[in-house]
Amino acid sequence: MNNLCLLTDLSSSDIASWAQAIVSSVAIGVGAWVVIWQTNRTRLEGSEREARALDGLARLLIHLKDTACEARAERRKLERWPPGHPAEPSARFLELANAIHSFPLEAVNGEVAFEALLNARRAAREMQPLVGPETELDINPNFEEVFSQYIGLLEQQILLLRAEAERLIKGKGHRHAAASSVQH
């Protein structure tokens, strides 16, 4: 018997078997860790892409809200840009409303973004008569209330989009209606 270690009674082939078993176990552990790391990294990169898309949609809604407010204020002025002029706020509002209406629903991931896009489409369509280029000499107080409600709806959707983007950046999954209704 060829003893390699004074404290054991193992032969060189036994020691080689033990060394191979230990090295194989370490290699399996490292391999598993690499697979888990790559899977997590791929998931995080996907979440970051989705978060950037949500942030882009939120910015589009911010611009829509801002131009709606500018166009609503412009309506009360007597000296204004001619209708259809590119600098006229209602023309910019219509451009953004068209962009929102042409935004493909298939490109929207997640329930929060889908709901935000549908609400923005509805708000843009229903605010259009309130921000149009024609002069509003006799202002109905209900118009202001309705307009404020749509602006509030857009602000709420912007906050929800930003919160969802933040969740995705932190590595958490999409928020779904079933999960959010249970939490309330």
Describe what is shown at a glance.
With 184 residues, the protein is mainly α. The chain is 73% helix and 0% strand. It is built from 5 helices and no strands.
Describe the protein's architecture and organization.
- The protein has 184 residues and is mostly helical.
- The protein contains 5 helices and no strands.
- It is rod-shaped and about 105 Å long.
Provide tags for this entry.
184 residues; mainly alpha; 5 helices; 73% helix; 0% strand; rod-shaped; disordered C terminus
SSE topology sketch:
Elements: H1 12-75, H2 89-102, H3 111-131, H4 141-169, H5 177-183
Helix pairs in contact: 1-2, 1-3, 1-4, 2-3, 3-4
The helix content, as a percent range, equals over 70%
* Mean pLDDT across residues: 82
Task: Flag low-confidence runs.
Answer: 177-184
Q: What's the total helix number?
A: 5
State Rg: 30 Å
- Please give the largest β-sheet: none
Structural class by SSE content: mainly alpha
Shape verdict? rod-shaped
